[in-house]
């Protein structure tokens, strides 16, 4: 194992402050950084010695021996389950990174989100309370090509269910619903068996389209409530928790284990083929390159390495470390060469940012001459990340395609959801526009169908009660 690099910001909020010094000996579970505001505790994921502390990370040289034992979280004997979750440094492990100890303390979650964005909750009274009716378990594994969430249900279902029940207890929720795609039949059968004696927990089957795992999409599909772009799930009396996060809650409560590892999928242009390599409990801070080598190594020339999913991930380098929110590592095929042709980019709230889209255009040797935004993508305030009005349900894109044509684009690069891509394809090719999706190189790399015209029905969601 090479040096482990623990980033000081692995969550929504400000970077943590180191609480160790260079030269310190650390163990798995040693507290090494603490929040300075909204954030979550950070721990060493290995036995070793701190060799360097920089502005954004703590670097640890691992010891040759790595025992399984860890330092338990430091909480009083009578600590509440919520206190354990906070002490363990758990964050949303589906990628969002919001501190779970804040999210599950639903009143505090509302207050702190208001502090982050006053437009959401400008002034909350001191006696403000949220009636939490549901824990919604995000088991959608939204990003195509990733498989570690579904694998965890298949192999560690009991732990996940325990974590969900703890989340229900902490929030006083009456019910829980697993949101899972209908295609994952093995995981569904495993979950059905586990829930036979859990009358308060049910399943909701989702269609296999992107982005069914977006938080507001989960609320809409499970509860039939359409949240605005400024509303939190609490407006629908719910808290949305990723299933891996739920498992970490179980570890914190049952074992007093800090959040020091991550499950993830590595796949793409690798020696041995493009099948998924699922790695469970990888120490946070291990390098991208080390995980790729564990998966067989890169097969020849490649386009780029994506950390995260094909839609929302970012390009990365071999020496970069994984964090608590890293879900995937995808090694892609080489990019096509557009030989300087005029390109339009269509930015969507469900995919990459404009900067990411421009990066892809540059790697394809295209000249960006026009930029449009999906008609449903809005900013809650200037400079804020885009939010979709109705994630996964998109109107037509004829107006944008007409603008691309007017701007003399030969190609367009889109980053849209399944339905939105479908609406682009309804008119774009008829206007002579050649379409690339920002995920094309990743989808070709993992053997997944390209995002173009929608081939599956959107109306296959259903509830399963036990």
UniProtKB/TrEMBL annotation:
Name of one Pfam family that matches: Complex1_51K
Entry-linked InterPro entries: Ion_transpt_RnfC/RsxC, Nuo51_FMN-bd, Nuo51_FMN-bd_sf, RnfC_N
Domain NADH-ubiquinone oxidoreductase 51kDa subunit FMN-binding: residue ranges: 85-250
The keyword Metal-binding is annotated on this UniProt entry: yes
Gene3D superfamilies, alphabetized: NADH-ubiquinone oxidoreductase 51kDa subunit
Keyword Iron: yes
Keyword field: 4Fe-4S, Electron transport, Iron, Iron-sulfur, Metal-binding, Repeat, Transport
Highest taxon, organism lineage: Bacteria
Annotated ranges, domain RnfC Barrel sandwich hybrid: 4-57
Protein name listed in UniProt: Proline reductase-associated electron transfer protein PrdC
Organism from which the protein derives: Dorea acetigenes
Lineage: Bacteria, Bacillati, Bacillota, Clostridia, Lachnospirales
